[in-house]
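Handout, section B. The chain below has 345 residues.
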Amino acid sequence: MKGVLLVNIGTPDTPEPKNVAKYLRQFLMDEEVMNIPYLLRWFLVNGIIVPFRRHHSARLYKSIWMDGDSPLRLHLAELTHLVKSFTLDKKIIVRYGMRYGNPSLSERIDKMHQKGVKDLLVILLYPQQTGSTVLSSFKYVEDTIQNKHYDINSSYIYAFYQDELYQECILKSVKESLFDSEKHSRLLFTYHGVPISHLPCPKQVANRCNDNWYGCIWKGEKYENCYRYQCYKSTEELAEKLDLQANNYETVFQSRLGKGTWLKPYFSERLQELPAENVKDIAVIAPSFTQDCLETLHEIKTEGQAIFRQAGGKEYVYIPCLNDNEDWAFVISQWINCWSYNSKY
């Protein structure tokens, strides 16, 4: 029996403070998210971050909640249904799970094992690769299989930012949005930020990597596996296919946490600077997300627009994630079909 598990980062069960706190603890206690000693991490998360953030975060989640659930979970559930309908082998079990929150990956793997799944394809819905997304999810799935002694052979798809069919979905969503390259003087590609310390290069070099993305000293495999490299490469390839000129687009990073040095340029700072540079009509897309969530719907869409307009900007267009787009579901089904029949599209 074959099974497919679509994985995304997760969401609280409800936007109530107690469930938001539970979700934040699970997320922030992951050593791949906060790579500091366990005792210090426990103190920061349980003694400072969660008590101070849970009520504020709960209010933000309430502002984006729709149809009684999280947008991320709603879109992912519908996407899974569509993927199943497009998959050629109807015997394949197709489910979705969350790295943090519910439905949990362990629960999904348990049920797949009970149904006799021996071959499992895990599709990590993260277009680029970081330790806090890809590595964390990979470790969790593998630990679950090994610790429970399940006879399951696992395969993975992740960091698919250069997949041409995936890129076509992004390009189509841009073209179908309100974005007009003649009207909007800048298209911002914004990616979820990570601390510089999370990048796969020596600490003595990491502080310089914000200067020039081609200037990384790593070459070959380590270089291409760098999250920062993958983000800039994503922008470069998409901009080229959109026929954008160099002064019509840029790469930025959002969602900083704490006072450390994170990937630059910072999204919020660029929004404040652009109107003074006579860039007053922009569009924003978030290619590091496949489903809309708190970061995209509040921080990027709502808060970003407010920052930009307060700085003197005029038109601000947010281009939604692929969510449960049928073209996107078909692409994923193609990946599954190729895996199932041991072929390559």
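Note. Residues 38-64 form the longest helix (27 residues). Compare this with the example in section A.
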